[in-house]
Write a structure and sequence with these properties.
This protein is about 30% helix and about 40% strand. By secondary structure, it is an alpha+beta fold. The chain has a six-stranded antiparallel sheet with strand order 3-2-1-4-5-6. Helix 4 runs parallel beside helix 5 (about 205-220). The longest helix has 21 residues, at about 120-140.
Length: about 220
């Protein structure tokens, strides 16, 4: 996916000055996401999608404009002509000093986990089912007579971001993310209460998921 963004960006950057654009920045990203949807204690759907999208920001003098697309087979000349029209129609920004230079990440925090990259549908489903079981068990230990996970879902994704400016300075990074959320409903003695479990992390932390699921089950009873 990185190569797709790099090749497209190079075509755009190489033609920008010929179109009269004085400053330009290309921002592109791709991601693959697996999504698990839950409804009434059951896996309702498993979805898988890949998205590539990008934006091009340009400046002529003190006028700035931008255009975005998901079309990887775009006519670069037409795209830049549209961008020029947008730029020329925009108002001047007297404080405009140009796009960023000397790209850098500064202090990086770990945001990439190969365990998430290597996860498949079955792995993701197993995490969801374990989390629901853990929450229900905690609620029952707390005295709930009936427990149900009403709705929710689990998302895992891996993606990358590529940035390059008109001078060829570039930056690329990849990231992962996983997030779990579901509503647990407990009933006891004719009363009921709900609580939303939520946890999200750049890295896969099964202990955190377990702890939040236990807390969710316990709180669904305490909130009655």
């Amino acid at each position: 996916m990185k190569d797709v963004l790099v090749n497209l960006a190079q075509k755009i950057v190489s033609r920008a000055r010929d179109k009269g654009i004085e400053d330009l920045e290309f921002y592109g990203r791709w991601f693959r996401e697996i999504g698990i949807d839950v409804s009434r204690d059951r896996i309702k759907a498993v979805k898988d999608r890949v998205i590539v999208e990008y934006g091009v920001l340009g400046a002529i003098g003190k006028r700035v404009g931008s255009i975005g697309s998901e079309d990887l087979d775009v006519d670069v000349d037409k795209l830049l002509d549209q961008l020029v029209s947008i730029i020329r129609a925009s108002r001047e920004d007297e404080k405009w000093s140009g796009f960023a230079r000397k790209y850098g990440r500064g202090v990086e925090v770990p945001g990439y986990d190969k365990k998430i990259v290597d996860m498949g549908h079955d792995d993701a489903v197993e995490i969801v089912l374990n989390a629901m079981d853990t929450a229900r068990d905690a609620a029952k230990r707390g005295g709930a007579e009936e427990v149900v996970v009403s709705e929710g879902g689990y998302r895992i994704a891996v993606g990358g971001v590529y940035i390059v400016n008109i001078d060829g300075e570039e930056q690329y990074g990849e990231y992962t993310v996983n997030s779990l959320s579901f509503e647990i409903k407990s009933r006891k003695g004719g009363e009921e209460s709900t609580y939303w479990v939520f946890t999200g992390n750049r890295r896969l932390d099964t202990k955190e998921i377990e702890e939040e699921s236990i807390r969710g089950g316990e709180y669904s009873v305490k909130f009655m």
